[in-house]
Design brief:
The protein is an alpha+beta fold. The protein is built from 8 helices and 8 strands, in the order H-H-H-H-E-E-H-E-E-H-E-E-H-E-H-E. Helix content is 43%, strand content 24%.
Length: 241
Amino acid sequence: MSGHSKWSTIKRKKGVLDSQRSKMFTKVIREITAAVKQGGSDINSNARLRLAVQNAKGINMPKDNIDRAISKGSSDTTNYTNIVYEGNGIKGSSFMVECMTDNTTRTVGEVRSLFNKYGGSLGKTGSVSYDFEKKSYFKLDNSKIKDIDEFLLEMIEVGADDIDSDDEENVVFLYGKDDCFGELQKDLENRGINILEAGLRYFPINTQELSDEDTQKIINFIDVLEDLDDVQHVYTNILIK
């Protein structure tokens, strides 16, 4: 699973939760701004903006914040670059770090510094990407999904290949081919299913299990990576129980 969605299940003190919520807002606002700059402020004709707004609603961002981010995107002159860094952590663990930045020199320096600090090393493009596959990812409100198996069979026809559920949170996770994201998104919208979060995500092909102590070190490392403003998502091949 993607880093941010996996680590959100770990219990936190309220102060940390509030801090993380603020960080999530900052990252989504940046994505909304970049989407507007790329394709305009019409949510109906700008698929990237529509997705960013869906993700904002999924983390309960107030409508006023969303509207301000869209307005800012129309006048903002900042140029953002999307870049993925690859590297290794302790015990041969693999990481993919998705960033959106207006200064790649600053970002790569910050990411490399954290890899070094936590016993790892930043690698070149292609150094660990073979450990992952890129897939379409959707987190869905399950209130309109009556039969999950039947739903998957129907979605397979438009590119889905797996499904999972969390009954406690009343959500369904749908996965599919990376080049079918648009078709899957459109089909879900046509069904009136509420998309809480979506995007193209990296998933490990084979997971690696570590001791509890080493797993906690990995979690700590991901936490500090995600605290960087430029980091959007963190992925690892380490199995988190």
